[in-house]
Amino acid sequence: MVTIMNENDAQMQTIMGLIVNGGNAKSDSMEAIHAAKKGDFETAAAKLADADKSLIEAHHSQTAMLTQEASGDPVPVSLLMVHGQDHLMNAITFRDLAGEVVDMYKKIG
Fold first, then answer.
1. How far is CA 71 from CA 60, 64, 76, in A?
2. Which of 7, 49, 51, 85 is 20 to 30 A distant from 16 in Cα terms?
3. Can 59 be counted among the known catalytic residues?
């Protein structure tokens, strides 16, 4: 049986990509801070790298929507879309700050 994804399903999948990958990036960033606090800078670096991978995946989802919009096919804005974008922006900010916190722990440790 072949399942055909409609436009709403595709958009929901894209939005969920933002939410899930943004959430994973934020979680990995927090784990990096906790590892650095314990002096485990190898794990901290690995967690920051994992966060970066999740952010790249989320960025791919966002780019798909931007490309659609730029090609003249408007992307409907929904509360879930706004939530997904908010999740991504918070994850990016959190990742940036986590990198700084890990660096601070390295210097004081």
1. 16, 11, 14
2. 49
3. no
86 a known binding residue?
Answer: yes
Tokens standing for residue 62: 């966002």
Q: Which of 34, 59, 83, 87 is catalytic?
A: 83
| Domain ranges across the chain | 14-108
> DSSP letters of 78-96?
-HHHHHHHHHHHHHHHHHH
d(CA 40, CA 47): 11
| pTM summary value | 0.88
**pLDDT of res. 1:** 61
Q: Is the pLDDT of residue 33 over 90?
A: yes
Q: Measured between alpha carbons, how far is 59 from 47 in angstroms, rounded to an integer? A: 18
**CB neighbourhood size of 25 (10 A):** 28
Q: Fold for 14-108, please state it.
A: Methane Monooxygenase Hydroxylase; Chain G, domain 1 (1.20.58)
**pLDDT tens string 50-64:** 999 999 999 998 898
